[in-house]
Design brief:
Length: 269
């Protein structure tokens, strides 16, 4: 699977050091290999001890992508992790959550010096139109008014030179965007810090408080798009995200709210 030499062991202490005072908010665990960090946290959910539990995998044998797809990664050259985030009772249902997570990743990348970061609804992170990171959010069942979510993130640090990923067409990596990719540990700490900040805002004020920042990075703002994968395709102009995270599309007759589906650019005919 990998044309790279075996990576060095993951340094959890380096992540805590980089997190600084925020380190106590997180419980970090690394597995050399597992099927999927999302699946692992969904089936063996840690008890609520007030910390955010983060599981990092050196390698995943069955990485999950959105809409039943696979997620491919390379040991030491991709960052793959999931975080179990619990929300206080009474916070809004996590409708805009996946957009907020995408925004946190985008801001992290910008702070690292990556140019041309954009977001494709609901949460693909693109750089110059190519996918650099993917997010898969799964809600834990039976949590009643206290929603809990497993937030899974895969980031391409440095893909093998001969990479061909049919289900992840049009990809890029941080090596291509920055010259040298950051260490996994540095990247993880930066993402967790940004997630912590934005999810605090989201819990207190909902997606609407972050909507403007998301809209600024909307890859398809004002462009003709097609929404597929949910019955009949819908075409129209992408207006951006609604106050709860739904996608707004202006069709011939109305403005439609899209809650799920795959967005692609529609060639002008
Ligand atoms: C997508 O864009 O389709 C979402 C990809 C999400 C991949 C990450 S890697 C860590 C976590 N564990 C998984 O099995 N999937 C997510």
């Amino acid at each position: 699977m990998s044309s790279f030499p075996a990576p060095p062991p993951f340094d959890l202490t380096a992540v805590s050091t980089a997190l600084g005072p925020l380190a106590s908010a997180f419980s970090l665990r690394w597995l050399e290999t597992c099927a999927s960090t999302n699946a692992e946290l969904m089936t063996h959910t840690p008890a609520d001890d007030g910390q955010v539990h983060v599981l990092i995998a050196g390698a995943q044998t069955a990485g999950r992508g959105r809409r039943g797809r696979q997620w491919q990664s390379w040991p030491g050259h991709s960052l793959t992790f999931s975080a179990l985030w619990r929300f206080d009772p009474g916070v809004p249902a996590p409708a805009g959550l996946s957009l907020v997570v995408g925004l946190a990743l985008a801001i992290t990348l910008e702070k690292l010096g990556v140019h041309g970061v954009q977001l494709k609804w609901p949460n693909d992170v693109l750089v110059h139109g190519r996918k650099l990171a993917g997010i898969l959010i799964e809600l834990l069942p039976g949590r009643g008014p206290t929603p809990a979510a497993v937030i899974g993130i895969g980031i391409n640090l440095q893909l093998p030179p001969d990479v061909s990923i049919p289900e992840q067409a049009g990809v890029t990596d941080l090596a291509a965007e920055l010259g040298t990719p950051p260490r996994q540990e540095t990247m993880l700490a930066a993402v967790l810090g940004e997630l912590h900040k934005l999810l605090d805002t989201y819990a207190a004020a909902g997606f609407d408080a972050l909507r403007g920042a998301w809209q600024q990075r909307n890859a398809f703002a004002g462009l003709p798009v097609r929404i597929s994968g949910e019955g009949k395709d819908i075409t129209g102009i992408c207006l951006g995200a609604d106050e709860d995270g739904a996608l707004l599309i202006r069709t011939d007759h109305e403005v439609s709210r899209i809650l799920s589906g795959e967005v692609s650019l529609r060639p002008v005919t």
